[in-house]
From TrEMBL:
Keywords: Membrane, Transmembrane, Transmembrane helix. Pfam families: PG_binding_4 (PF12229), VanW (PF04294). Residues 1-53 are annotated as: Disordered. Residues 250-367 form the YoaR-like putative peptidoglycan binding domain. This is Vancomycin resistance protein YoaR, contains peptidoglycan-binding and VanW domains. The chain crosses the membrane at residues 59-82.
Length: 610
C-alpha cells in the first residue's frame, strides 16, 4: 500500500470512485454511508466536491431514462408505421393494416372473391312506390380495389392511435350513372312524367311556341350516389324520384319568340351581290329558320341554307352559276371528254351568319352576299386519267307506242339525264340522287305506274324500264349492285329477276364502281328501244347469267274495278319464284358466282266495270 503521509490524493480521482459505488436508484437526501465517519487516511471529502458529484449522478440518470424512452418510442413507431397501410385498418372485414399497397390489394381481392355471390346478386331498389332489381354487372356496380387501398393508405391517425387503435375504411364503390339511369327508367312506370320539351315552330309565317314542363323521373347521378351508399348494407336501396327541368325556361321561350322568331318573318330581307340582288321573303325565312332543342332541352336558333335555297327556287339563278362536272361523250365511236366548268355560289357560312344577325331587326334588313368560285367535282384533267377507253357491256330493252307516247317520252327524258355520266373508281351512283325528283318541271309526263298492286296514272311512268336497262348494263359489266328492287309483277319485256323498279324518293337504284378505272354511262334510244352501254376498261373475260327453273307458280285472280280514267285493265300474269346466277370469268376461270332470287306475285286480271 502506498501512503501519502499528510497529503491527500488529488481531488480529480474522487468522482471516479464515487460513480463506481453508486447503486440505482440514488437520492440526494443525505450523505452516503461511505462519507460518514473519519477518513482513515485523511480528513473527509470537500463539501463542494460532494455537491458536484450529486449533480453529475442526476444528469447521468436522466440521460439514461431518456435513452430508454427514445429506444422504446423508436420501436413503437417502427411497428406502427410498418407497411403503407396504417396498422389496425380493415375494409369489409379484411385486415389491410401493416401491408404494402400490393399486398393490401391482394387481400381485399381475396375478400371480394369470398363475397362474390353477394356482390353479384341483384340489388333490390325502391323507386317511388315501385320496386325493381338491378344487376350489378349491367350498371358497372363494383368495388374499386385500387381506389379503396389508396383511401386506406391516406387514413392517417396519431402515432399512438396507429399503434393501439383500429379503423374501418369504407370501400370505394363505382357505378355507371348513365347505364343505371337507363335501367331504372323502366321501374318508374306510370308514377313518372315525361319532359315536355320547349318548342318554337312556324305555321306559315306565324310563330308557334310550346312551353317546357319538367319530367318526374330518376336522375343518374342521384341514383348512383344512393346505390353506392346502400349497396353493401344488405337492405333495399331507395332511389328518389326527381324533377328534371329543360335547359330553356318558359320565359326564355317567350323571349326568343319576341326577340327573334316573330321579327324574323315580319318583313323580307334584301340580299345584294356584285351581280344583282335577291329578295328573301318571310315565307322562305320561316321554312329555313328553326329552333332545335338538344337532349337537355336547350333551344338554339339555326338557319338551314339548303332549305332556304329550296324555298327560293330559281331566284338565285340570277346571281349564282352552278359548276358543271366534266362528262364523256362518243365522237367517232370513241370516248371524248366534255370539259368541266367552274361556277360561282354564295358563301353559305357568311349567308347564315349575316342573315341570323339581321333577322331580329325591324329596319335595315339588308345583307351583302359573298360570291365564291366553285370548282367542279370532276375536272377535265381528272376525267382524262380514268382509263375510259372501251365498251365493257351493253343492254337494250324494247317498248311500244313510238316516241310520241307519254311513257316513251319519260324513258327518253331519263336517258338524256343520265347520258355521259362518269362514275369514278370507288364511287357509288344513285339514280334518284342524279336526276332528283322526276316531275313535270323536269320534263316528265303522266304515264302508268304500279301503285298498291295496280297500274294507275302517275308522273314519270316508264322510268322503271330505263332503270332495268341500266341495271343490266352495270350487271354485265361486273360492277357492284348496291341497291335495287325488282317489280312486284313480272313483265315479259324485262329479264326475270335481274330487273329493277324505281320510285322517288322511296325506291332507288344504286351501283358502285368497284374497279380501278372510271366508267361512263352512254345512253341511246330509237322509236322502240332504249340502250345503255358501259364504257371503261375491261377486267373480266365474260359475265353471263344462269337461271334456275321457275317454282311456286301462282295464278292471277279476277278483280273488277270502278270504271274511270284511273282504271287500267290488265290481262293478268302468273306469279313465280326464280333464281338468277351471275357467273363472272377471268383468265378462263370462274372468279365470282352471285345468286339473285326474287318472288313475283301473280298480277290480277283487272277489269274496269261489272
Amino acid at each position: 500500500m502506498t501512503l501519502y503521509g499528510d497529503k491527500l490524493p488529488p481531488a480529480d480521482d474522487r468522482p471516479t470512485v464515487q460513480v463506481t459505488a453508486v447503486t440505482w436508484p440514488a437520492t440526494d437526501s443525505g450523505p452516503s454511508p461511505a462519507a460518514t465517519g473519519p477518513d482513515p487516511v485523511g480528513p473527509g471529502p470537500d463539501p463542494a466536491s460532494s455537491r458536484n458529484g450529486r449533480r453529475r449522478r442526476t444528469v447521468l440518470l436522466a440521460a439514461g431514462m431518456a435513452t430508454v424512452l427514445l429506444a422504446a418510442g423508436a420501436g413503437a413507431g417502427g411497428y406502427a408505421y410498418a407497411g403503407e397501410v396504417p396498422r389496425g385498418t380493415t375494409v369489409l372485414g379484411a385486415e389491410l393494416g401493416g401491408k404494402s399497397r400490393a399486398d393490401a390489394a391482394q387481400a381485399l381481392r381475396t375478400e371480394l372473391d369470398r363475397r362474390a355471390a353477394t356482390l353479384t346478386a341483384p340489388v333490390p331498389v325502391r323507386v317511388g312506390d315501385r320496386t325493381a332489381e338491378i344487376n350489378p354487372a349491367d350498371v358497372g356496380l363494383t368495388v374499386d380495389v385500387d381506389a379503396t387501398v389508396a383511401a386506406a393508405v391516406e387514413a392517417q391517425a396519431a402515432p399512438l392511435s396507429r399503434l393501439f387503435g383500429t379503423r374501418t375504411v369504407e370501400p370505394v364503390v363505382t357505378v355507371d350513372a348513365a347505364r343505371l339511369e337507363t335501367s331504372l327508367e323502366a321501374a318508374v312506370g306510370p308514377q313518372g312524367r315525361k319532359m315536355t320539351m320547349p318548342k318554337i315552330s312556324y305555321s306559315g309565317t306565324t310563330p308557334k311556341k310550346v312551353h317546357p314542363k319538367p319530367a318526374l323521373t330518376v336522375d343518374g347521378q342521384t341514383s348512383a350516389e344512393a346505390l353506392r351508399k346502400g349497396w353493401l348494407t344488405g337492405e333495399p336501396v331507395t332511389v328518389p324520384l326527381v324533377e328534371k327541368h329543360p335547359a330553356t325556361t318558359a320565359e326564355e321561350v317567350d323571349r326568343l319568340v319576341t326577340e327573334l322568331a316573330a321579327p324574323a318573318v315580319a318583313a323580307p330581307v334584301k340580299l345584294t351581290t356584285e351581280k344583282g340582288s335577291v329578295t328573301i321573303p318571310p315565307s322562305a325565312i320561316a321554312r329555313s329558320l328553326s329552333f332545335p332543342a338538344d337532349k337537355a332541352g336547350k333551344l338554339t336558333p339555326k338557319l338551314d341554307v339548303k332549305k332556304l335555297r329550296a324555298a327560293l327556287g330559281d331566284k338565285l339563278d340570277a346571281i349564282e352559276v352552278e359548276p358543271k362536272d366534266a362528262a364523256m361523250t362518243l365522237a367517232g365511236g370513241r370516248p371524248k371528254a366534255v370539259p368541266s366548268k367552274s361556277g360561282q355560289r354564295l358563301d353559305d357560312a357568311a349567308l347564315t351568319r349575316d342573315l341570323l344577325a339581321v333577322l331580329p331587326k325591324s329596319d335595315g334588313r339588308t345583307i351583302d352576299g359573298v360570291l365564291k368560285p366553285v370548282d367542279a367535282d370532276l375536272t377535265t384533267e381528272e376525267v382524262g386519267k380514268l382509263g375510259i377507253k372501251e365498251k365493257v357491256s351493253s343492254f337494250t330493252t324494247h317498248f311500244t307506242g313510238g316516241l310520241s307516247s307519254p311513257r316513251s317520252k319519260n324513258i327518253v327524258q331519263i336517258a338524256k339525264d343520265v347520258d355521259g355520266t362518269v362514275v369514278k373508281p370507288g364511287e357509288t351512283f344513285s339514280l334518284n340522287g342524279h336526276t332528283g325528283e322526276r316531275s313535270y318541271k323536269q320534263g316528265y309526263h303522266d304515264a302508268p305506274v304500279i301503285m298498291n298492286g295496280k297500274l294507275v296514272p302517275g308522273v314519270g311512268g316508264g322510268t322503271s324500264q330505263f332503270t332495268t336497262t341500266l341495271f343490266n348494263g352495270i350487271y354485265y359489266a361486273g360492277l357492284e349492285d348496291v341497291e335495287h328492287k325488282p317489280h312486284s309483277y313480272w313483265f315479259s319485256r324485262y329479264p326475270a329477276v335481274i330487273e329493277s323498279t324505281i320510285f322517288y324518293p322511296d325506291l332507288d337504284f344504286k351501283f358502285r364502281n368497284n374497279t380501278p378505272y372510271g366508267v361512263m354511262i352512254d345512253t341511246s334510244y330509237t322509236s322502240s328501244s332504249v340502250t345503255v352501254a358501259i364504257w371503261g376498261t375491261k377486267i373480266y373475260d365474260s359475265v353471263k347469267t344462269e337461271y334456275s327453273p321457275r317454282r311456286n307458280i301462282t295464278k292471277p285472280k279476277l278483280i273488277r274495278l270502278e270504271p274511270g280514267p284511273s282504271c287500267i285493265a290488265t290481262n293478268g300474269i302468273d306469279g313465280f319464284t326464280q333464281d338468277a346466277f351471275r357467273i363472272i370469268r377471268k383468265d378462263g376461270k370462274v372468279v365470282k358466282r352471285e345468286k339473285f332470287t326474287w318472288t313475283y306475285q301473280a298480277e290480277p286480271r283487272f277489269v274496269c266495270g261489272p
